[in-house]
């Protein structure tokens, strides 16, 4: 019954949304021993990962030869001359009286719905509808791992006006409507990613059969790009899976695996993936899927199979409830409320989705389709959508290894320190098949780390993402030990010991005595300069920084830091390992705080200043979250750890001087001396108690804050000014990192800020923000604050350059 | 000098094996080549090995294999095993006290008789000084019992072994749930009424949900029939081919039964019931009837049905294995030599039932034989689709090269030499007992049909497999 409640209750589906959009989840309990990291935020920024990029990744393994598979029967040209015309995206043949339409976009690992594909598809369908010999059709992709990954984003982006987009959407709607009304049954045979426009195509068919493997996922990820399903999806999906489930899919954009899709009624049949036979498994599986689909297509045209699905009791109850207007209104209201609460009104797409679905149900499908195409067009023109699409492209870029393949693939990993970070790194390594040694100094510490890895895997078993057997076999990739046994085989050692330079030096020397020549030494540090760590190394070209973010299994970002001496092959190898671990990677130059920590530090300094000026922590939190940050600024300090923040502030303050000034480190020092270390000690700005969800302000802080109080400056202390004081300092520092060459590209800057630091995804990252908001406006704000506070607000040269020439953009 | 000559002579057949390998792998020991005999129809005269004891089957029996839930349903596994042992004693007249060791295979264990070999042996009147143990290796448990015995004889530990297998699917251990068991165990330790009451208060109705023995592969949670259906699909084996093969199995079994060829069957007087004399699962049907059945595992479009799968069976088998010189000294005329054998294992998910494909070329290579040398094939038929998929795999160079690391295919067995007296599909498949049936069928067929070498092969849960060469004992 748990599921039934989930289907009925709208609350839950919107809760899913939290994780995806605004999603700050502060669920880590006090971090046990291990390296306290500045990066210990618990942000869950927008999870774009499920968009087509996954399909791209999964496809990279398929070889070209497998794609050029030969169909098992003769492809007949059908209506004379027209079939002789070479089509590039679609071809079809006929098995008995069933047409098999194969989608295979040329020179691409994925099929995307673009104009050519659409026109060829309609051409083929028209021939099929016209033919007397064809009674049904099967729609299938020739690419293993991808049905259709979605509509072509560039096709939409190239539209200049909303009218153009509306037209585009209406063309899609008409095409799918024709398909839906087809008198000859069309079966979609789905293997691999069936997302966005691909799903809209599939749900327009009369029947769907999907391969039950991990690559086969169905979903509507449009919301993650700030748009909505614009080819009839908002109208068809609620009818197919029910309103609550449709909202869940469209508002979270999450991927649905084939077996779940079957239960929801999104697909009608499942086909099990096959093992080796007389052909490679992937190839034969697609062939088998086609055979099964052809059987069903025949059965449908012979009326031996009905497309009606038996609905379960729960489904029947749901649809009955949805037939009562009052219930529907309540659901719209509830969903909208939750969405507003979670998005703080910063993301227009979810609200429009609710609106369009509502229009379709309440005013009929004509109104629904019209509303869908118009709202779709409106959304594509928004800044939010541009920002999110920019992030999507950036993420795709940061999932590639631009340093090429390393000479030797790292297969054996050793991790020093079984703390929160070390164990987290181990967890994301073992499940990718890397043999991993986890070494700690104490048995207790090691045991805790091993338990963390096990728990991470076991949680997946509970969610049915893994079987208990798979868990055990993955866990056997991990070796826990207290000594350096086996290090002679390691290809890469990642140290995650305490952030203490002399300790790092000691382990580096110890490790270098036992590892082979080719082995890379990577340091997981959030602030210690890598060249200082490498100073004691015999082989500095093999030393690199790998800055993971906590919790490692949730945070997608990996910041790789190279020194002057780091070799290209070492970098290539570190990126390869990071990619294998499923990370989005930015590669930055060495320097105090690298990129991420350095951007955050001036903002943190401003946080202290704002608190000293008498703004309540709760008020400050709400100002930052309403700007789009997933975690409030005061809470962030508590989460990171006050002592860590103090440490970093002092270090970076020394390195950068006045520019990092503003707030007084004294505030942090006093908190540390009182034992207010944040969440881990139970007290910081807030009081943390086990099992208590609501946070109370730590009243003991009043004295400290009062003693350090500075008078606020009234002309720069409005709510908006406070928000911009924080954000402009962040952005200014980010741009400076690009100016100084710490960052190689603005794309990496945006990805690092959003995926590592929780910079508001709706703004697209600091660089996209400058482009969309206007460099001049940001410089103006900085100048205003500079006048009030001093040089910490002085805009950097690159920002001034962009302000003075309006054509200059970080992204063209 | 004589000894050298003898040695060379003994070594002769063995060298041809090397020669055979040589043709496959041109780089291996060229010196062996010179000793290779000229080409002949049979690669070898005998598979005897120098300095190795010849091991023979004196005879083997089985009680009739019955569909579970029929005449054996009120018995316990050791009852069936005891019946097989008594039958063997009767058939061979072997003095009980000369048996050195008894080994039985079984799969689903009756908890009360977990060492079912010992319980059955004691009950059958074997000496209480004869040790016995039970082995398990899914469907090749009885094969494991036999080869364990071979090991004991070959290493000189024993001279006379009884190996067998038993399975009773009419009754399987159904357990209380883990939660219930835990509570019951804690209750056992609870001393005061208060403790007991507090334990009772934790009781929930769902504790009573029973736990059935696993029908699915533990590592993959997939049932064997489901895997067989996928295997058949992977090798593009059609439903019709599967039904035809199943019909062949039933027809051949019926014929063998009618002609009295199944001489390993011994009658079993079931207490309180009639004497059972015949296997009761042999039911030749028609293709039309079989085509009507719905798929049993992958619904609604799969190809494996109840009619083309082996059925749940009760049964037991036993076999007398001796060192050749011991058998001869006791005046026995053995039926066959047990020669080279192999165990293989592969991916339990996608190649669960391909054991015979992997094991066959390996055992042939080990014995220095080719497919042409084999006169009688006895393969375990778990599913029609599984047998036909194995045929296709054995006949595929692509499969051999990509999955088995071999240069060429081994070839599929000729159907006229294959399971000529029926197989597990028709005779039944008591998991733990089938292995002995296969070996005895091969031995009896060689005697009846006049061949020299038999090849026994079987797949087993866990993605394992087995093959053994059986050589006819010269008449």
UniProtKB/TrEMBL annotation, chain A:
Sequence ranges assigned to domain 3-hydroxyacyl-CoA dehydrogenase NAD binding in this UniProt record: 413-590
PANTHER family: TRIFUNCTIONAL ENZYME SUBUNIT ALPHA, TRIFUNCTIONAL ENZYME SUBUNIT ALPHA, MITOCHONDRIAL
Active-site residues per Swiss-Prot or TrEMBL entry: 559 (for hydroxyacyl-coenzyme a dehydrogenase activity)
Catalytic reaction(s) noted: (3S)-hydroxyhexadecanoyl-CoA + NAD(+) = 3-oxohexadecanoyl-CoA + NADH + H(+); (3S)-hydroxyhexadecanoyl-CoA = (2E)-hexadecenoyl-CoA + H2O; (3S)-3-hydroxydodecanoyl-CoA + NAD(+) = 3-oxododecanoyl-CoA + NADH + H(+); 1'-[1,2-di-(9Z,12Z-octadecadienoyl)-sn-glycero-3-phospho]-3'-[1-(9Z,12Z-octadecadienoyl)-sn-glycero-3-phospho]-glycerol + (9Z)-octadecenoyl-CoA = 1'-[1,2-di-(9Z,12Z-octadecadienoyl)-sn-glycero-3-phospho]-3'-[1-(9Z,12Z-octadecadienoyl)-2-(9Z-octadecenoyl)-sn-glycero-3-phospho]-glycerol + CoA
Gene Ontology cellular component annotations, sorted alphabetically: mitochondrial fatty acid beta-oxidation multienzyme complex; mitochondrial inner membrane; mitochondrial nucleoid
Keywords for the protein's UniProt record, in alphabetical order: Acetylation, Fatty acid metabolism, Lipid metabolism, Lyase, Membrane, Methylation, Mitochondrion, Mitochondrion inner membrane, Multifunctional enzyme, NAD, Oxidoreductase, Phosphoprotein, Transferase, Transit peptide
UniProt-annotated site: Important for long-chain enoyl-CoA hydratase activity, residues: 200, 222
Subcellular location: Mitochondrion inner membrane
Domain 3-hydroxyacyl-CoA dehydrogenase C-terminal: from-to ranges: 593-688
Subunit structure and binding partners: Heterotetramer of 2 alpha/HADHA and 2 beta/HADHB subunits; forms the mitochondrial trifunctional enzyme. Also purified as higher order heterooligomers including a 4 alpha/HADHA and 4 beta/HADHB heterooligomer which physiological significance remains unclear. The mitochondrial trifunctional enzyme interacts with MTLN.
Record-given protein name: Trifunctional enzyme subunit alpha, mitochondrial
TrEMBL record, chain B:
Gene3D superfamilies on file: 3.40.47.10
GO CC field: endoplasmic reticulum; mitochondrial fatty acid beta-oxidation multienzyme complex; mitochondrial inner membrane; mitochondrial nucleoid; mitochondrial outer membrane; nucleoplasm
Domain Thiolase N-terminal: 55-325
UniProt-recorded name of the protein: Trifunctional enzyme subunit beta, mitochondrial
Functional pathway: Lipid metabolism; fatty acid beta-oxidation
Chief location bin: endoplasmic reticulum
Organism: Ursus americanus
Catalysed transformations (reactions): hexanoyl-CoA + acetyl-CoA = 3-oxooctanoyl-CoA + CoA; decanoyl-CoA + acetyl-CoA = 3-oxododecanoyl-CoA + CoA; an acyl-CoA + acetyl-CoA = a 3-oxoacyl-CoA + CoA; butanoyl-CoA + acetyl-CoA = 3-oxohexanoyl-CoA + CoA
Transmembrane parts of this sequence: none
């Amino acid at each position: 019954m748990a599921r039934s409640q989930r289907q009925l209750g709208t609350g839950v589906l919107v809760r899913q949304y939290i994780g995806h959009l605004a999603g700050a989840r502060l669920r880590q309990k006090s971090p046990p021993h291990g390296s306290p990291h500045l990066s210990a935020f618990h942000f869950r920024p927008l999870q774009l990962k499920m968009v087509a990029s996954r399909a791209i990744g999964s496809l990279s393994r398929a070889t070209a030869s497998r794609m050029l598979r030969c169909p098992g029967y003769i492809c007949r040209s059908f209506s004379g001359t027209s079939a002789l015309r070479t089509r590039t995206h679609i071809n079809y043949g006929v098995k008995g009286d069933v047409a098999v339409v194969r989608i295979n976009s040329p020179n691409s690992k994925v099929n995307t719905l673009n104009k050519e594909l659409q026109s060829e598809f309609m051409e083929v369908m028209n021939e099929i509808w016209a033919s007397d010999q064809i009674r049904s059709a099967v729609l299938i992709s020739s690419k293993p791992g991808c049905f259709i990954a979605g509509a072509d984003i560039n096709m939409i982006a190239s539209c200049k006006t909303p009218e153009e987009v509306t037209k585009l959407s209406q063309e899609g709607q008409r095409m799918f409507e024709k398909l839906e009304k087809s008198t000859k049954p069309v079966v979609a045979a789905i293997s691999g990613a069936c997302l966005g426009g691909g799903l809209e195509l599939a749900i327009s068919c009369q029947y769907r059969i999907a391969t039950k493997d991990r690559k086969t996922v169905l979903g509507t990820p449009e919301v993650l790009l700030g748009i909505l399903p614009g080819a009839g999806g908002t109208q068809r999906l609620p009818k197919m899976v029910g309103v609550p489930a449709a909202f869940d899919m469209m508002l979270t954009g999450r991927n649905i695996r084939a077996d779940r899709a079957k239960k929801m009624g999104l697909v009608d049949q499942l086909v099990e993936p096959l093992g080796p036979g007389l052909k490679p498994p992937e190839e034969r599986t697609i062939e088998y899927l086609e055979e099964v689909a052809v059987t069903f297509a025949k059965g449908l045209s012979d009326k031996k199979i009905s497309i009606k699905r038996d609905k379960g009791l729960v489904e029947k109850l749901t649809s009955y409830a949805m037939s009562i207007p009052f219930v529907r209104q309540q659901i719209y209201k509830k969903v909208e409320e939750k969405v507003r609460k979670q998005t703080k009104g910063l993301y227009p797409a979810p609200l429009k989705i609710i609106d369009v679905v509502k229009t379709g149900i309440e005013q009929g499908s004509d109104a629904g389709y019209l509303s869908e195409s118009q709202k779709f067009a409106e959304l594509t023109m928004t800044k939010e959508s541009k920002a999110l699409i920019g992030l999507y492209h950036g993420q795709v870029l940061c999932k590639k290894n631009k340093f090429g393949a390393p000479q030797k693939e790292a297969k054996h990993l050793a991790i020093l320190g079984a703390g929160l970070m070390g164990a987290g790194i181990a967890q994301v390594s073992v499940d990718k098949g890397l043999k991993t040694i986890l070494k700690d100094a104490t048995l207790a510490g090691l045991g805790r780390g091993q338990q963390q890895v096990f728990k991470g895997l076991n949680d997946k078993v509970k969610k049915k993402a893994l079987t208990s057997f798979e868990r055990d076999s993955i866990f056997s990739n991990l070796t826990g030990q207290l000594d350096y046994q086996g290090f002679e085989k390691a290809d890469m050692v990642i140290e995650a010991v305490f952030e203490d330079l002399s300790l790092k030096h000691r382990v580096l020397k110890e490790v270098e005595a036992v590892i082979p020549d080719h082995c890379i030494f990577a340091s997981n540090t959030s602030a210690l300069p890598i060249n200082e760590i490498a100073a004691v190394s015999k082989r500095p070209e093999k030393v690199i920084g790998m800055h993971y973010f906590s919790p490692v299994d949730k945070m997608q970002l990996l910041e790789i830091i190279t020194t002057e001496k780091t070799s290209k092959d070492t970098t290539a190898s570190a990126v390869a390992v990071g990619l294998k671990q499923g990370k989005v990677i930015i590669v930055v130059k060495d320097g105090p705080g690298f990129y991420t920590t350095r951007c955050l530090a001036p903002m943190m300094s401003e946080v202290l200043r704002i608190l000293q000026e008498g703004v309540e922590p709760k008020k400050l939190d709400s100002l930052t979250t309403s700007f789009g940050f997933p975690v409030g600024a005061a809470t962030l300090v508590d989460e990171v750890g006050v002592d860590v923040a103090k440490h970093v502030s002092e270090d970076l303050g020394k390195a950068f001087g006045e520019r990092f000034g503003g707030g007084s480190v004294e505030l942090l020092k006093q908190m540390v001396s009182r034992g207010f270390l944040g969440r881990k000690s139970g007290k910081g700005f807030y009081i943390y108690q086990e099992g208590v969800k609501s946070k109370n302000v730590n009243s003991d802080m009043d004295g400290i804050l009062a003693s350090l109080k500075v008078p606020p400056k009234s002309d720069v202390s409005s709510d908006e000014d406070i928000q911009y004081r924080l954000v402009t300092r962040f952005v200014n520092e980010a741009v400076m990192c690009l100016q100084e060459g710490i960052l190689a590209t603005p794309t990496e800057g945006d990805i690092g800020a959003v995926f590592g630091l929780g910079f508001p995804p709706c703004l697209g990252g600091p660089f996209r923000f400058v482009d969309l908001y206007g460099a001049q406006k940001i410089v103006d704000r900085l100048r205003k604050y500079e006048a009030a506070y001093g040089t910490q607000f002085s805009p950097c040269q690159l920002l001034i350059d962009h302000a003075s020439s309006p054509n200059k953009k970080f992204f063209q | 000098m004589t000894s050298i000559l003898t040695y060379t002579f003994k070594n002769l057949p063995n060298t041809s094996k090397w020669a055979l390998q040589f043709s496959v792998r041109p780089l291996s020991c060229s010196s062996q080549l010179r000793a290779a005999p000229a080409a002949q129809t049979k690669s070898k005269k005998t598979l005897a090995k120098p300095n190795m004891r010849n091991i023979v089957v004196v005879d083997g029996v089985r009680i009739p294999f019955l569909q579970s839930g029929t005449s054996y349903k009120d018995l316990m596994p050791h009852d069936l095993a005891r019946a097989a042992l008594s039958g063997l004693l009767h058939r061979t007249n072997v003095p009980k006290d000369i048996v050195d060791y008894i080994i039985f295979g079984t799969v689903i264990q009756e908890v009360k008789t977990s060492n079912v070999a010992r319980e059955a042996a004691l009950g059958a009147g074997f000496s209480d000084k004869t040790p016995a143990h039970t082995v398990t290796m899914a469907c090749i448990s009885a094969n494991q019992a036999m080869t364990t015995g071979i090991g004991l004889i070959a290493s000189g530990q024993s001279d006379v072994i009884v190996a067998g297998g038993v399975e009773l699917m009419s009754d399987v251990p159904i357990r209380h749930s883990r939660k219930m068991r835990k509570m019951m165990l804690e209750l056992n330790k609870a001393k005061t009424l208060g403790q007991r009451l507090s334990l009772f208060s934790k009781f929930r109705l769902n504790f009573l949900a029973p736990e059935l023995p696993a029908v699915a592969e533990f590592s993959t949670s997939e049932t064997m029939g489901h895997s067989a259906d996928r295997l058949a699909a992977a090798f593009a084996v059609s439903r019709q081919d599967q039904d035809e093969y199943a019909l062949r199995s039933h027809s051949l079994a019926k014929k063998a039964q009618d002609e009295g060829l199944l001489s390993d069957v011994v009658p079993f007087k079931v207490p309180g019931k009639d004497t059972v004399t015949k296997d009761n699962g042999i039911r030749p049907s028609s293709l039309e009837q079989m085509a009507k059945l719905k798929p049993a595992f992958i619904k609604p479009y799969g190809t494996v049905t109840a009619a083309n799968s082996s059925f749940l069976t009760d049964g037991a088998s036993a076999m007398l294995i001796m060192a050749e010189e011991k058998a001869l000294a006791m005046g026995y005329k053995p039926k066959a030599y047990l020669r080279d054998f192999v165990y293989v294992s592969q991916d339990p998910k996608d190649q669960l039932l391909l054991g015979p494909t992997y094991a066959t070329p390996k055992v042939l290579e080990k014995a220095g034989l080719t497919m042409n040398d084999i006169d009688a094939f006895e393969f375990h038929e778990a599913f029609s689709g599984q047998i036909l998929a194995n045929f296709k795999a054995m006949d595929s160079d692509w499969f051999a090269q990509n999955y088995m690391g071999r240069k060429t295919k081994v070839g599929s067995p000729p159907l006229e030499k294959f399971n000529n007296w029926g197989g597990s599909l028709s005779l039944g498949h008591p998991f733990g007992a089938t292995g002995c049936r296969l070996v005895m069928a091969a031995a009896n067929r060689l005697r009846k049909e006049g061949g020299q070498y038999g090849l026994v092969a079987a797949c087993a849960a866990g993605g394992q497999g087995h093959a053994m060469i059986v050589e006819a004992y010269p008449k």
